[in-house]
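chain below, 180 aa
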Amino acid sequence: MIRLKVAEAFNNYVNDGIAGIDSEAMKKLNVDGNDYVEIEGKRKTPVRVSRFYPPDKQDIGLIRIDAMTRKNAKTGIGEYVKVRKADIKFAEKVIVSAAKKGTSLTKENSLLLRCLMDKSLVKGDIIYIGMPEVLGDKQDILFRVFSSKRKEYFAETIVIKKTEPAGIVMVYPKTEVEVE
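prediction:
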């Protein structure tokens, strides 16, 4: 476990569930690019790591995470968080609900599964759906996932209500996704 100072994510990591850390921190954590770590602020949340590129000396000792990851970890820019290699299990079941009042989710499991595929998550996390999952030919999925009459949504959020098993899980093709 190491402590890193929270900084804003690089633009290419925003809403993508990726944290940027320096090479030395990756060595200490025994992780490679695309491994997962657990970030602990006032709350724990998982995130995939990537090495800063190009490396910059001013980034040593930092973890660059986006606003949603900071919200899930209950931390802010300039605060220190504990970071450790994550112990991830495959999700057998994930129960979700819409994060916004007045928005309902589709009951079509395959659409939700497609949006959550390969994401690491834990109970209580808020997850973006639609960015970048709906780019290109997938854009229609967002409008079908969120049963809303409004079509101007580009991204929405869902809340992870429960996972089986408990703890950090990764959604994979055999995960059952249920709407609460």
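The chain has two domains: 2-85, 89-179. Residues 109-116 form the longest helix (8 residues).
thats it, cya
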